[in-house]
Every structure is written in structure tokens, then in C-alpha cells.
Amino acid sequence: MTSLPFVAGALRRSLLAVATALTAASAFAAPPTLPPFPVAALRPVLENGTVAVDARGLWAVPGYGDLYALSADRAALYQYAGGLCWLATADSDLLLAKASGYYARSRQPRDFVLASSPRGTQLHAIGLQRLPAACADGIDRSRPLYTFDAAALTLKRLYPFNRERHLDWDARIARLRPTAARARSDAELWPVMAELLRGVDDLHTSLSNDLLKPTAEIQGQRGVHFTRLRERFQREAKPGEMFMDWLETVWIAQERRQAEAQLLPGTQGSDIGGRVSWGRLPGNVGYLALTAMAADAGDDDGHRAAMGRALDRALAELGDTRALVLDIAHNLGGLDVVSAELAARFADRERLAYTKRPYADARVQPQPVRIAPAGAARYRKPVYLLTSEFTCSAGETFAMMMRAFPQVTQVGQPTQGIFSDGLAKLLPNGWVLSLSNEVYRDPAGESFEARGLPPDRALAVYPARESAGSYGRALRRAAQWAAAR
């Protein structure tokens, strides 16, 4: 097989002892030289139903371990790690719309990026002349060992938070690979993969047995209460039920009643199936809850527009309040572009919220995310942002955006600590590996991965020793602070 190092000028010795290498641009090992493209430079990949001429070609994305093959009328996605390469089974139209909907190209510095939307994450790519031999048809990728190696080498190369989460991938691979080599079926490989991911405790780093309708999953999390709930779920789960679905539809739905009980009669409203809800608390304090950063369906722009309209409706009804409790204590995430759309309603001026960059591509400069005032409704009065260990992913990026504004005080508990996008890898046997691969930093250059955003004022939303009604009491205290402003 052909090695795919995508590292300047050298062969990488993979665990499979592959013989040859695909050489990449010598700039890869140099200091960061590739700045992000301005939003206005991003153009649609599809023009009149065909791929734009300047976007066609073979594009390897070192920071994400992906290789895009874009021709006039179709797209293919290959994924690579170490000496392995395999075709990801994905619909061509879906791939173009979701993963590579926009592109930009420059000659100085020589660069090419793909992005799902103009404001989305920019994937900096290297152009290739031909498809590497390791990606060719005819290679046996059916053995469980190939799937193990594909996942293990992906984690080894792309996962950034080994120090924070006390991980040694070399040691894990050396210990587990002999067992994987003896596996004769996916069923025998599954417990080996569970050992590979044991203790990672990163909700974005997981393994599921299917892309669209998973019935089994390996996943961990941070936090005593979160872990206690997973143990409860494992006792009560129905066949095929997924933990995060249960968490949202069963447990969070029950917890939300504690907030609803505190709202003044006749003031409650909701939209997007309850993902945006609002009302009034005693003392002329507004209450706004966001339980997800996504609408029910649609593309990125559709989610942004629907959630933006819902928030405008809520803020219009709460505009005369003296302060606001903004409750994201149960926000399990969604889309960062939705987080930015909603945060813009609270911005006083354009401010830097954070930067992000792929861990495995040293060529790439951090991509800044700035929030400027926007939206039909605005709110500039004091905001108390309630967070907990159940504030996850895009809920956390929203919190980081909100912390940039002077009228916002974060109260509650630290967030979950999973800021990176979840990078999906469609493994050769049809399983789906998800992993964190990006580093987010606040304007001061600090990363909060694996520990979460700490509050300005602490509240025991979910204490280590379980206490019935703790969320409701924390919300009541936050409302008292808001009323005293």
C-alpha cells in the first residue's frame, strides 16, 4: 500500500509498514502561512448544476484527513490515515451541498479552501495530480483489522487533546492491535474499539454502527451528573435507543418543567418545537431558553433563518424587561453558524469571539470568528447566561461569543468542554467514527477543551451529590441577581 503522510518531504512509518509515500507541499512543516479567506471570496462549488472549473481536481485536506475528488458532475470523498485510504460511501449531491458547498482559491499564497457555507469552517487543501495508489480499487479493506487501523491511525494523527485527556494512542494501539488482528467479524471487533475509546470522555469522539440510523454507540462524557445519567440510560434504554436522543426527549424535557413553573402566568411562549422558549420572571426579568442551536430541518441557512426569526419573536416580547436570564443549561449543541446568528442580537459592536484551527495542519493560520450586531430585535440590557455540564458543543461556542459582550455575566457551572466540530469518518465497514480535531481559543488565546468555560458566578445547577430541584433553585437565584441590577 502507498503511505499518505501529507507531511513535507518524508516517509511516515505506519503501523502497517507501508512502502511508499505521497509527498506533499514543503510548506506543511513551516510556520503558519495560510490565512483565512474573507467571506466575500467564497463562491459556490456548483455553477448551473456543474462543479465550477476552478474547483475541479483532487484536493487533500491535511488537517481533516479527507481527500475530495471533484469533477464536472460528481464528487467523491476519500479518507486517509497513515498508510490507508478508503472511499467514503456518501451521496455525491449531499457531499457537494453539505461538505464542500463553497470554495476559494488564491495564487499567493498558493491555497485552496472548501467550506460548507461562506461563514463556515475553511478546509485548506493541497492539490494532487493523481489519486494515490492507496486509494485505488482492488485493495482488500474488508478485514476487521483494516477498520481498526483506519480508526486508530485517524485518532493518532488528528486528535488534539491528548495531554488534556491523558491519552497515549501509541500505547493503546500497541496493546489492542493484536486482539483486533484476531477478530473475524465486526461483532468481535466492537469490544476492541470500546477499549480503544475507553476514558476519552469527549462527546465528539465516538463510534456508531451506522450513519443515518445507528443502533449502537461507544461514547463518553465529562461530569458526574452526565455520567450518572448515562448509567441510568443503560439500565432503562429501549432497544436501538440512543443516549443523546433520550437525554433530550426524556430527561431534559422533565427538567425544563422546573423553569416553566417559575414563569409568570400568561407570559410563556415557544417556537421551533420548544427549542426556543421564553417568558417573564418576578422583578421584570425576562427568561429565554435555548436548548439547541439548530431548527428542525434544512441546510445551514435554513437553520440560521428559522432560529433567528424565533429569537426575534422572543426578544420583541421581552424588550421592556430590566434584565434577562438566558438559559443554555441544557443546550446540547447544533451549528456554530446558528450560535453566531443568535449571539448577534446581543452584540454592541463587532467583537472577536474566538479563533479555531485544525490541530494537524501547521500551515493554517487560526480562523477568527467575529460577531457583529444583526437581527430584527436587539437586547443590550444585563444578561445572566446560565450554563452547566449539559451545555455542549455549539452551545459552548455561543457561550464564548456571549462572553465577549460587556453586559453578559456567565453563571452556573462550567460547560462540557467540547468546542471542536465533530469530524465524521465513514470507516471501511460502514461504521462512523467521530472525533474532535480543531483547537478553539478565546481572544486571550486560552483553550477550554476538556474543562469547559468557567462561570463568572458559580451556582450548583447539578451538584456532584444529586439533589432534586437543584436546577430550579439555580435558576431562581440567577433571576434574583438579575432583578437586583
Automatic annotation (TrEMBL):
Q: Does the keyword Signal apply?
A: yes
* One GO MF term attached to the UniProt entry: serine-type peptidase activity
Q: Which GO terms describe its biological process?
A: proteolysis
Q: PROSITE patterns this protein is in?
A: TAT
At the top level, the lineage of the source is: Bacteria
Tail specific protease domain: which residues?
259-460
Q: What is the name of the protein in this document?
A: Peptidase, S41 family protein
Which residue stretches, if any, does this entry annotate as coiled coil?
none
InterPro entries, per database record = ClpP/crotonase-like_dom_sf, Tail-specific_protease, TAT_signal
What is the residue range of the signal peptide feature? 1-29
**CDD domains in the record, alphabetically?**
Peptidase_S41_IRBP
Its keywords, alphabetically, are: Signal
